[in-house]
Design brief:
The protein contains six helices and six strands. About 30% of the residues lie in helices and about 20% in strands. The chain is α+β, with helices and mostly antiparallel strands. The chain has one domain. A two-stranded antiparallel ribbon has the order 1-6. A two-stranded antiparallel ribbon has the order 2-3. Strands 4-5 form a two-stranded antiparallel sheet.
């Protein structure tokens, strides 16, 4: 029972990140997209074709390059030349939540794209976590 209580206390007092900042309307997030299949980035055109058959929402993207790790980069077809979304009112949940707070991503050094107006911070400073230990 003591282990369970300790686990709960640790979860409640553990570091949590919050998103701060604002959108600068640079369009980078709509032009440098990594799409995933089962936690792995899509690396081939064949994978992309299969995922488009499986989920019609992927059809709004087209291949626009490759990342340094060999994953395909995608661009959303709804982004206009002025960096505005042509379907803003009807945009998907992923777009509405971008950039989503993902603790695993942040712990591994992830950050928003260069030039993005958003950034992440821990909800409390390190000293306040030490006081609760």
């Amino acid at each position: 029972m003591l282990k369970y209580i300790k686990f709960i206390v640790q979860k409640i007092t553990s570091s949590k990140y919050v998103r701060k900042g604002h959108c600068k309307k640079c369009g980078a997030c709509c032009r440098n997209i990594l799409l995933y299949i089962e936690d792995e980035p899509i690396k081939t055109e064949d994978q992309f074709e299969k995922v488009k058959e499986w989920d019609k929402h992927f059809r709004k993207f087209y291949i626009s390059g490759k990342s340094e790790t060999g994953a395909l980069l995608f661009t959303c077809a709804a982004i206009a030349d002025d960096n505005r979304c042509r379907v803003y009112f009807f945009r998907g949940l992923g777009c509405r939540q971008y950039p989503k707070v993902n603790t695993k991503f942040l712990i591994n050094g992830g950050k928003p794209l260069k030039g993005c107006g958003y950034y992440f911070e821990a909800d409390r400073d390190f000293k306040s976590y030490l006081k609760n230990s």
